[in-house]
Amino acid sequence: MKIGKVSENVLKRSVFRQIKTKRKEVISGAVSGGDCAFFAFAESGELMASCMREAAVACGTNRNATAVPMEILLQKCVNNLACGGADSLAVQITLLLPEDAEESVLKQLMSEAEETCSKLSMQIAGGQTRLTKAVNTPYAVVTGYGRVKSGEVHTVKEAKPGQDIVISKWIGLEGTAMLAKSYREKLLEHYPAYLVEEAAGFSQYISVLSEATIARKYGVGAMHDASEGGVFGALWELAEGAGLGMSVDLKKLPLRQETVEVCEQLNVNPYELLSGGCLLMTTEDGNGLVEALEREGIPAVVVGKLTDSNDRVLHNEEEIRYMDKPKTDEIYKLEGA
Fold this sequence. Notes:
26% strand; 10 helices; 13 strands; Phosphoribosyl-aminoimidazole Synthetase, Chain A, domain 2; alpha+beta; 2 domains; CATH 3.30.1330.10
C-alpha cells in the first residue's frame, strides 16, 4: 500500500466488507465519500453526527511538509460536520507525542486547540495524551460531535441524477498553502515574494462553514468537502458514494494563478492536490446556488452534472476521458513530505 489514503479497492475489500455488525440507531455509517456518521434518537427528533480527522501536527521544530496546524485539523473536522448538515458541539482529542517530547509541546498544542474551539463554539470534551515510540513527530486524532434535525441530514445519498455539481472557492488551496510554506526559499528563486506570501496565506480559506450554511438554506442535495486526493478524488468519492456517474468540464474547475505557479515549479498536479476549503455541492438549480453564494462574497461555479450511468467523464474542450480512481495525494510525492 502507498502512503496517504488507502485506495478505493483496498477500502472496499479490507475495511467496508469487514464491517458486518449493524444497529438501527446508526442511520448512516461507513461509506465512500461520507463525511460523517449519524445516530438516531427517536425521543428527541434529532440526530447526533460524528466525524474524525487525523494528521501529523505542526509544532515547534516539526518541519514535516505534510504536518498541519492544530487549527486547520480542527477546522477540517468541523467542515465534515457542516457537510452533513450538523452544527458542531464538542470534540475529543487524542495526542500521540514522541517519547522525547517536552511538556511545552503538549501545552502549546492544547492552547492552540482551545483557542480554535473557542472561535468555533466547541467544547473539548476529552481524549487521550500519550508519549510513544510509535511516532517521531506529534500526531493528533480529533473526533467531532454535532447535532442535526432528522429531516436536515445531508449525505452522498442525497445526490441525484440530473443535479448540477457546484464547487465553491478554488481547488488546491490547502496544498498550495502547505507547499508555499515548506518550499518558500525555492519558490522565491523564481517568483516575487508577494506571490509566494499570497499562496502561503491560502489557509485562511479552509473553512467551508459559510457556503455550507447558505447551501443548506438554499436546498442543497449532497455536500462533500474536497481534501486528500484533490478535486479529482473528491468528485470520484461523491459519485461512488451516490452510486452515480458524472460529467465534468475540466476547464471550469476553479484554479488560482498562485496554485498554477506553485504546482508548475514543484511539478505537482493541482487537480490531485490537497483541496481543503473547496466544497462540492449538488443541487437542482446550480446557477441559483452560485448566485446565492456570490451574493455573500463566496466564489462558486457549476462544473458539471450527475448522471444515472456509472461513467465519470472529464471534458477538456474536444477531448473526453474517463476519471480514474483516487490516487495518492500529490503532497506526498515531494521530498521531505
